[in-house]
Design a protein that fits this description.
Elements (H helix, E strand, L loop, with lengths): L3 H22 L2 H13 L4 H6 L16 H14 L13 H18 L4 H9 L8 H9 L2 H27 L1
Helix pairs in contact: 1-2, 1-8, 2-4, 2-8, 4-5, 4-8, 5-8
Length: about 170
């Protein structure tokens, strides 16, 4: 059975790696997935790749929930989700959905909303259109990379902890 020290070490590793990835190349859902998977020693480029279009509330629009939250839900679903062979079994949806709700609720408690544009406004003063070069520059000047990378790290930490706590229950 994992002890609290091990849970903290793995969760901290997820935070550090996810934050580092976000600072290096952006893509909040992918950075969250990579941080969690690094901490749990999982290699799966398919899940990582599938997170690409979920950045900045879907397609860099801000009009969707936080990409980091999306990445956390993808990691939870990878670990506890329903397989295609079980497609007709609605009961197989329960575990991943309950754990995803737990992540969502912790996220909203910490950040006040799950919507990307709302979070940007809360963290850096307003929403930025990242397709517009002047807006991208303004976002950088406002500290978006630092604030969002910390958020990505926090989501990776929360996600890793939820996964490890659930795995510990099974033992």
């Amino acid at each position: 059975m994992q002890n609290e020290k091990s849970l903290n070490e793995k969760s901290d590793k997820a935070f550090e790696n996810a934050k580092k990835y976000e600072m290096r190349g952006g893509g909040c859902p992918q950075c969250t997935i990579a941080g969690v998977f690094d901490a749990l020693e999982i290699e799966n480029d398919d899940v990582f790749k599938a997170g690409t279009g979920l950045a900045d509330g879907v397609g860099l629009t801000g009009d969707g929930h936080c990409g980091a939250l999306s990445g956390g839900v993808m990691a939870i679903s990878y670990m506890f989700g329903r397989d295609k062979k079980d497609f007709g079994d609605m009961r197989k949806l329960v575990k991943a959905n309950l754990l995803s709700k737990k992540l969502h609720d912790r996220f909203v408690e910490k950040y006040g909303s799950a919507r990307c544009a709302d979070i940007q406004t809360s963290l850096i003063g307003r929403f930025y259109n990242l397709y517009d070069p002047s807006e991208l520059a303004a976002a950088a000047k406002a500290g978006m990379m630092e604030k969002c990378s910390t958020l990505v790290g926090e989501v990776a930490r929360m996600t890793t902890r939820i996964i490890l706590e659930e795995q510990q229950k099974k033992k």
